[in-house]
Every structure is written in structure tokens, then in C-alpha cells.
Design brief:
Layout: H1 3-7, E1 15-20, E2 26-32, H2 35-44, H3 50-58, E3 61-66, H4 70-84, E4 91-92, E5 100-103, E6 112-115, E7 124-126, H5 132-146, H6 166-169, H7 183-197, H8 201-217, H9 221-240, E8 242-243, E9 251-256, E10 264-273, E11 276-286, H10 293-307, E12 314-316, H11 324-335, E13 340-342, H12 348-383, E14 391-400, E15 403-413, E16 416-417, E17 423-426, H13 435-452, E18 460-464, H14 467-479, E19 487-491, E20 501-503, E21 508-509, H15 516-544
Parallel strand pairs: 9-12, 12-13, 14-18, 18-19
Antiparallel strand pairs: 1-2, 1-3, 4-11, 5-6, 5-7, 8-11, 9-10, 10-11, 14-15, 15-16, 15-17, 19-20, 20-21
Helix pairs in contact: 4-11, 8-9, 13-14
Length: about 550
């Protein structure tokens, strides 16, 4: 069946659609209130966004799944995106690695443990935790304060041990296996742990203070002293938590890094419970092509809360979401309570969003620096370089029919531009449209000077162009006695959908579109091109007298 015939038979019900490429791979998943209207809209009008233009050029087929409501479509869309990770969807990169705290409330004497899978077994789950270190600290505190068991015994029949283990003697377990505590008393402790894991520390302390007084009144001083120690430990935790909000409402504050310059973005979530900042989570999104802030936040909120077992009373966002109404309805159904979503423009909440966004930008910078170090090592292996290319220099030529011809040199160190070392060249040769000759002049001037000044040479040289430009640059380097510096050239694709080609002296590569080495090489090549164009326009304006 052709696309045209499929488009004419689309249902008007809500659902999820899956776009596929010529190889049958799912490249995009979306949801719709009306499948007919939404899918047809991709093909009827020329899309304004470059992402959609690229997406439509790749669509060879599509499938759809009808649902009973828009909320059902949203849940299904989340699950399918997580399962297939389509190229043109925004994906939460690292959600699969997050651990949860599990309390086996389906057992008579529940245990506490960690898990990375949520299953419908009657247990209670808390999380996910962005950092496993934070999870282990939390578990250690719980075992010290509440002494809940963590062994694997079922405490029935032959599974029941005959005596208490070492954990009881070091005050890390209440030994329900020996009948040391009743089921009812143990369940109250489990309820207290659930309050703690939900961030209700202040409420928990109030309950424990009442419990301590009750025990003291009936002369159970040893029990009252134990509860007093629990209260002191919890108060120490509270003193380490910053008071950031005067309101006592549970809030999740979202901050996001700049999204227009990166193929990925970072979202930081401040977890505020009872006015105190109890945690901070960093999440990285793979955004593919340039995405708007609105699209990133919408995609993140849906994927983030799809896993969450407890929800706050308020979501504080840096911008409105594209599907805010249906997302709010879904969250309220999931949490069983009303949820407020707000986008503040000023005041305390706006200040917290700005602080979270600042942290997101710092995290993204650190992440990208680490990734570029890894990419440079990968580049060394892919291009068979003798050294990791710590310093890379790239050349480009810009002219119009040979007039106002200029050359540019950009320098990248550790995968980042070093603008203080950028250089520009006004071509001194004849005003002819001869890119190869101009490139030879620029390369000769650059490395003749470096040799005369005895300055260090780069680990890799990149020239914009094909085999002719590569050979021209190599001949210049050879004539200068420089024979041990790797040299490559890059050719831009001539048609949409084609990949860049990379030439070395003895071979040619066509890397995959999503290969990280290619992305870095493209970034360097495009920066050289930008710098050349900027200088060319400046020279041209100067020649015509335009300021």
C-alpha cells in the first residue's frame, strides 16, 4: 500500500504514529488527538522547522496504534520511545541505569533493597536515584536509624533462622526473625521509612517526638532513648538540607541548559520537600537536530515522570509545555492528587529556575569536555593517527570569482576552539578562482612561519575540499620538510541524505551520520568556514565603502 492510499484511510481517533525509513527502522514516534489530522499535516504543508523537513525526507512508511484517549496515547508514546529510541525523538539518554529503593511491603516483615526494575509484585518503589552513591548513603542512613532488615529470609517455616544474626547485635536490624518485634510495630517503622523516602522528614520527626513521649510516660525509657537518637539523626539530616522555599509545598524545580548550540541538552531537577532542597538530579537529553526549549522540556517531563513512583504537588518549569493540559491530566491520574504546573516570570521560583539552569549549563560543559576527550581517542583509532590529536588546525578559503579572496585557520585544542590562535589570510596571489592555489599559499605561509619561529606543530591538519586540496596541502608540507603530520580533507555532501567524505593520502572514508568523530570533524570544518566567510564579508564591505 502506498503512502498516499494510507493517508486517505486514517482514523480520526487519538493514538500513536510511528514513521519508518526505507530500511523499515522507526525514526520518529508521536501522539495525536486525531491521527488523521496529525499525520496528514506532515505532508500537506511545507514544514517551518528544519527538523521536520529532514524527517519528512526520510519517511518511507508509517504505522499507527489507536487508543481510547489522549492520555493513553501519551503513556504508549512514552513506552515506545523508550523501547525504540528513534533518531528524531528527544531521548532521555541515561534513564535505564537509574536504581530504585524497594520495600517489600507484600511480606509480613518487609525488607529494604535496591533494584533497577519495577515489577507489579505489591512492593513499594522509591526513586529513581540519579546517582548510585546517593542511594547507598540513603540506605545506610535508613539501616542506622530504623534498623529494618535486609536479609533474604522469608521468615516462615524452614526459612526462619534459629537465632539473630550479626546485624541485630550491631544495631542494624530489629531481628523480627526471633520474634523480637511484633508485626504491627514493625509495620509502623516501615511507614516511617516511607515518610523519610518521600522527603517528609519534618512530619516524621513530629511523629517520632510524640512516640518518644508516649514511651517515656509508660516508663519504657530504653525505647524512648532509641527514638530520641533517631530524632537527633534526622535533625542532623535536616540541618544539611538548604531551606530554599518559604512555602511548605512539595515542588520539583526544572532548569535546562541552552539547547540551540548542542546535539544534547542537560536538565537539572531540584527536589524540594517541605521547603527544603533534599536532592538535585542531572539528566542528559539526546536532542539530535536543533530543538526548541519547549520541545525539550515537554519530552523530558513525559519521560521523567513515566518512571516516578511519587509525585510533587507543584512542577515549576522554565517554559510552558506543548501538551501541558494532557500531561497535567496524566500526572494527576498517576499520582491520585491535583498537581499545579506553573511557569514563573519573577520572584523566588524564577530565581530557583535560574539557579537550576546555571547548574545544567555547567553540567553540560563538563559532560561535553569529557566526551570530547573520548572522541579524540576514538578519532586516533579511526583515522589511524600516531597520537591523540590534542591540537587540530583546519583551513578554508572564501572568495567570489577570485575577488576579495581570503583564507582562514582555526585551532581546536582538547576538542574545543582556541580562538586566540585563529588566523586569517588575505590572498596575495592572482585574483583567479583557484581554490587549490589559494590553499597552497595559505598553508605555506602558516607553516613557514611556525618553522621559522620554532613553534610546535599540530597533531592533525584538516583542509576543506577533496583529493585535489589534500594533495596540494601535502605537497606544500613536503616541500617544507614536514612529513610526519597527519593530513585529511573533508567534502560536504552534494545531496540531502548523503554523508561527508573524508580523504587521507591513501584512502577515503564515509562515516555514518551519527558517528561522534564525524560530528567533531564537522564542527571544526564548519568553524573554519564560518571564520573565512566572516573575514571575506569584512574585506568586501571595506572595498565597497560600506561600514
Amino acid at each position: 500500500m502506498t503512502l498516499k492510499s494510507k493517508l486517505s484511510n486514517l482514523p480520526k481517533e487519538p493514538g500513536v504514529y510511528l514513521f519508518k525509513d526505507t530500511a523499515g527502522r522507526i525514526i520518529y514516534i508521536g501522539k495525536a488527538v486525531s491521527l488523521s489530522q496529525r499525520i496528514k499535516s506532515y505532508f500537506q504543508n511545507r514544514p517551518a522547522l528544519p527538523k521536520n523537513l529532514m524527517l519528512i525526507s526520510k519517511i518511507a512508511d508509517f504505522d499507527y496504534i489507536v487508543t481510547n484517549s489522549e492520555v493513553e496515547a501519551l503513556i504508549l508514546e512514552n513506552n515506545l520511545i523508550k523501547a525504540h529510541k528513534p533518531r528524531y525523538n528527544i531521548n532521555l539518554r541515561d534513564d535505564k541505569t537509574y536504581p530504585f529503593v524497594k520495600i517489600t511491603t507484600q511480606e509480613d516483615f518487609p525488607r529494604i533493597l535496591t533494584t533497577r526494575r519495577i515489577i507489579d509484585d505489591g512492593a513499594r518503589y522509591f526513586g529513581p536515584y540519579a546517582h548510585s552513591g546517593d542511594l547507598h548513603k540513603t540506605l545506610k542512613l535508613i539501616k542506622e536509624i530504623f534498623q529494618i532488615r535486609s536479609c533474604k529470609y522469608k521468615l516462615t517455616g524452614s526459612q526462619k533462622p534459629t537465632r539473630a544474626c550479626l546485624n541485630y547485635h550491631i544495631k542494624r536490624c530489629l531481628a523480627p526473625c526471633t520474634g523480637n518485634i511484633s508485626k504491627e510495630e514493625y509495620q509502623k517503622i516501615v511507614d516511617e521509612i516511607c515518610l523519610f523516602l518521600n522527603g517528609k522528614v519534618k512530619e516524621l520527626i513530629m511523629e517520632l517526638e510524640l512516640k518518644m513521649k508516649q514511651n517515656a510516660q509508660v516508663l519504657r525509657f530504653e525505647k524512648a532513648a532509641m527514638i530520641r537518637d533517631q530524632i537527633q539523626a534526622l535533625q542532623n539530616i535536616m540541618t544539611k538540607q538548604r531551606v530554599v522555599s518559604l512555602s511548605k509545598v512539595d515542588q520539583d524545580i526544572f532548569g535546562i541548559s541552552e539547547t540551540n548550540q548542542h546535539s544534547q541538552s542537560c536538565v537539572v531537577v531540584f527536589l524540594i520537600r517541605d521547603g527544603r532542597l533534599i536532592g538535585e538530579e542531572h539528566h542528559f537529553l539526546k536532542t539530535g537536530l536543533k530543538e526548541s526549549l519547549n520541545e525539550c522540556i515537554t519530552a523530558f517531563v513525559k519521560q521523567y515522570y513515566a518512571q516516578k513512583t511519587s509525585l510533587p504537588q507543584e512542577l515549576i518549569l522554565p517554559c510552558t509545555m506543548a501538551e501541558q493540559g494532557v500531561i497535567k491530566q496524566w500526572l494527576e491520574e498517576k499520582g491520585g492528587a491535583r498537581i499545579k504546573i506553573c511557569v514563573p516570570k519573577r520572584g523566588e521560583k524564577k530565581h530557583l529556575i535560574d539557579l537550576a539552569s546555571k547548574n545544567a549549563n555547567l553540567s553540560l560543559s563538563t559532560q561535553k569536555a569529557q566526551e570530547k576527550t573520548e572522541i579524540l581517542a576514538l578519532m586516533q583509532n579511526y583515522l589511524k593517527l600516531p597520537l591523540i590529536p590534542t591540537r587540530i588546525e583546519a583551513f578554508d578559503i572564501s572568495c567570489l570569482s577570485g575577488k576579495d579572496a581570503v583564507g582562514s585557520l582555526v585551532v581546536f585544542e582538547e576538542g574545543k576552539p582556541k580562538k586566540s590562535d585563529y588566523r586569517r589570510f588575505k590572498i596575495k596571489g592572482p585574483a583567479l578562482p583557484n581554490d587549490v592555489g589559494m590553499l597552497k599559499e595559505v598553508v605555506n605561509r602558516r607553516y613557514s612561519r611556525l618553522l621559522s619561529e620554532k613553534k610546535p606543530l599540530p597533531d592533525l591538519i584538516i583542509v576543506d575540499g577533496g583529493k585535489a586540496q589534500l594533495n596540494a596541502a601535502w605537497n606544500v608540507l613536503h616541500s617544507l620538510g614536514i612529513q610526519d603530520i597527519p593530513l585529511i580533507s573533508m567534502v560536504k555532501p552534494q545531496a540531502t541524505g548523503e554523508n561527508d567524505r573524508i580523504f587521507t593520502l591513501h584512502s577515503c572514508f564515509t562515516p555514518e551520520h551519527d558517528f561522534p568523530v564525524l560530528h567533531l570533524l564537522q564542527e571544526i570544518r564548519d568553524e573554519a568556514h564560518r571564520f573565512a566567510i566572516f573575514y571575506h564579508r569584512k574585506i568586501k564591505r571595506k572595498g565597497t565603502g560600506i561600514p
